[in-house]
Amino acid sequence: MAIRLIRRAALFVLTLLVASIVVFGLLAILPGDVARTMLGVDATPQAVAALRNEMGLDRPLVVRYLEWVGGMLHGDLGTSYVTHQPVAAAVSDHLQVSLILVISAMIIAICVALPVGVFAAYGQGRISGAVLSALSQLAVAVPGFLAGLLLVIVFAVTLHWLPASGWVAPIEGFGDFLRHLLLPALSLGLIQGAILSRYVRSAVLDIMREDFMRTARSKGLTPFRALIRHGLRNALIPVLTITGIELAALFVGAIVIESVFVVPGIGSLLVQSVQNRDLIQIQGIVMVIVAIVLVINLLVDLLYAVIDPRLRTSR
């Protein structure tokens, strides 16, 4: 187990290093001049050169990269070209909102996927199983932004139950916070729950064909009780991998949903930074998202050993 942890930690660090090189390199070779974009097309070459010198854009790429990476090791993501504020502070403020949204959506997705997937597998060959499978397959084909717009039309425009957009912090009123959180969380969670339910169904079907499940039923347990008591734990191992992937995908999907519902999350900050061509802030945001995805993958890999005792032993 210790060797497995060390290997995964080393791979995590190496992947993060490669990602930093790729992110910095791609943004560095983008066409256009940040200084000229900020000053406008009428700026003189002298003014553009002075601004480039002030921002440090005239230094070699290797020097700029090493300074950027060195700053990240101390929690410094640089200073925004536009606002002249620390990038780390802006990312931290917006990341809190995105984490609340993504975690809420993941809870909704799991609450939808587990019962739908289990009952779809248990009802295979019956009308109930076919209906659940068809509904989940239909939901998979619906884009997240379209689901958000439909929810807004129904619950905000037609029924006037929930606000159509905006965000309220929990400390400003927990009731208003939940009302503003519900629609964007449902837009993300329902679609991901439908995707996850397909994998739950497949995993449960595989487990139901195993010999130990037949042994459990031969001892007097009904198929459903045998599945709940002995099958779900084993079915969770492949589902856990997909859950980690889905959680990472939620951060990407949140970028669109935050724009639809005007949520001040890290996705909205990324879109704003791209519009302003704030490259240093874009670098910081992308690296934070990459680090979050890698941490999720690392935790999923370590959770394998918790769920499956066979992975705890190594030679």
Describe the protein:
This protein has helices at residues 2-28, 34-39, 45-55, 61-73, 87-122, 127-140, 144-158, 174-208, 211-218, 223-260, 266-276, 279-307. The chain contains twelve helices and no strands. The model has no long low-confidence stretch (mean pLDDT 83). It folds into two domains: 2-73; 87-308, MetI-like (MetI-like fold, Orthogonal Bundle), CATH 1.10.3720.10. One of its GO terms (cellular component) is plasma membrane. The chain crosses the membrane at residues 9-30, 99-122, 134-161, 181-200, 235-262, 282-307. Keywords: Cell membrane, Membrane, Transmembrane, Transmembrane helix, Transport. Belongs to the binding-protein-dependent transport system permease family.
Shape: globular
Annotation, overall tally of beta strands: 0
CATH architecture annotation name of the largest domain: Orthogonal Bundle
Following the backbone from N to C, one meets helices and strands in this order, namely: HHHHHHHHHHHH
Share of residues in helices: over 70%
The largest pleated sheet is described as: none
Mean residue pLDDT: 83
- Number of separate structural domains: 2
CATH H-tier superfamily of the largest domain: MetI-like
Task: Give the class from helix and strand content and strand pairing.
Answer: mainly alpha
- For the terminal residues, how far apart are their CA atoms? 10 Å
**Number of DSSP helices?**
12
CATH overall fold name of the largest domain = MetI-like fold
Query: Strand share of the residues?
Result: under 5%
Which spans of ≥5 residues are poorly predicted at pLDDT below 50? none
Radius of gyration: 24 Å
CATH C-level name of the largest domain = Mainly Alpha
Membrane topology: Multi-pass membrane protein
Subcellular location: Cell membrane
Transmembrane segments: 9-30, 99-122, 134-161, 181-200, 235-262, 282-307
InterPro entries: BPD_transp_1_N, MetI-like, MetI-like_sf
